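Forgive a beginner's question, but would it be possible to get any protein sequence you like and the tokens describing how it folds?
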Amino acid sequence: MHLTYAEVDCEQTPLGRLTLRRYVAETGETGYEILLDGNFLMASHGAHSERGMAALAHARLRRPAQNLRVLVGGLGAGHTLRAALELPGVSAVTVAEIGAKVVEWNRRYFAEVNGRALDDPRVTVRVADLADVLRADRAAFDLLLLDVDNGPGWLAAPGNAGLYEPAGVRICRDALRPGGVLAVWSPQPNPIFLQALRSVFPDAEEISTADMGKPLGEPGDTVYLAVKV
């Protein structure tokens, strides 16, 4: 399908240049995409795995699904945030997003596709680096839903590499309450990251979302899940 693009807005962040662009398909369908230094990050369309990650993580909780606190790493188009808000027992969701413009774009351009998720009173947005939020909030969250890159093997910014190494995984573990779950999105399996994840969470899982995507005509992605015992 042929798409035409037009840049709408941009912002220089500590990780690089964030760009919002509008696309128009031959069918007349329109939407928006977010890029970092020209690399695709997120769009209005094709979000089955970003949404599904929240439910997969919630199903693995080993604590009562009551008064749950969730951290969403990377706001993007707001798909994961919307899914988190729809989970049973969620009382508060913190969004860590390094680009202030991304928050503005969500309210102005992505509100229709994410159900105005940022307007939910349970949501707090922190314009900050995800790693800083994780370090500041030890044993604070029941679910960590992380999608700040195009997966561990295709970083949005080189500075994010540490998040997928054993030391970074330990920071995630320490931000979880006992029985809480870490979920990390990836477009494809990544054996190196799985090894790092299992060095901290021996029972970590690698889940394909192909069955979720097939009815929608979308390719399957990968979600990594780990429980803090």
Observations:
- DSSP finds seven helices and eleven strands in the chain.
- The domain at 48-227 is CATH 3.40.50.150 (Rossmann fold).
- The chain has a mean pLDDT of 92.
- The chain has two domains: 3-43, 48-227.
